[in-house]
Amino acid sequence: MHQISRVRHETRRRTLDVLRIEQVTPGMMRVWLGGDELAGFTSLGADDHIKVFVPGEGGEQERATEMRDYTPRRYDAAANELAVDFALHDAGPATAWARGASVGSTVEIGGPRGSMVVPADFDWWLLIGDETALPAMGRRLEELPEGTPVIALAAVTGPAEQQSFETRTALQAHWVHRPLADAGDPTLLLGALKAITLPAGDGFVWIAAEANVTRTLRSHVLETLGHKPQWVKASGYWVKGRADATEKFEN
pTM (2 decimals)? Predict the structure, then answer.
């Protein structure tokens, strides 16, 4: 029961075409990619990461390629389409590429290198994150079986950035609003978490936000709530004050 597994994938770079672009919220853009090289793409975990390769800073001739991690938001093998969500508040090169992309543009991706596969046999799920976590949270909500109890707690800048998810789960969604300048402050998310009563039974807890926020919430889940470490996955998707930095928390 609850056999969590890790699967390695053969990695390759793919050059893909932009098929269409959707504005999910004012601050989140969804880019649909496709092309012959997408065939055989594999992503088994809702929070997998691919590398997106984009032009860096500098002139057209000398600027180097940079890469950033993104979640495969949705993959449709039958239609040969892959969706990637870009949070537009980030001023980095990947966001600059997304803002300038149009149908017919091309981009290279790599990976995912592997997947952490969490079975759907848990009694309930708790998903916590900020804007950077919403693609993985949304994918998880879409993929979990019908009727699965899920509590989702997310921090965004305001009501306009709240997302609606296509899900069959028994979802309780809690939204916390704060300015981006406070995205590294765990106070509001921690307060909201403390106000939630978790269901009985076995639950899987998933946390992804700024590293200090994740660290604080993870400590509360493990030390105060006494949740089993093997049933918690916590990631610092970004680190305040450091460009292109992440932090992993091992149980």
Answer: 0.94
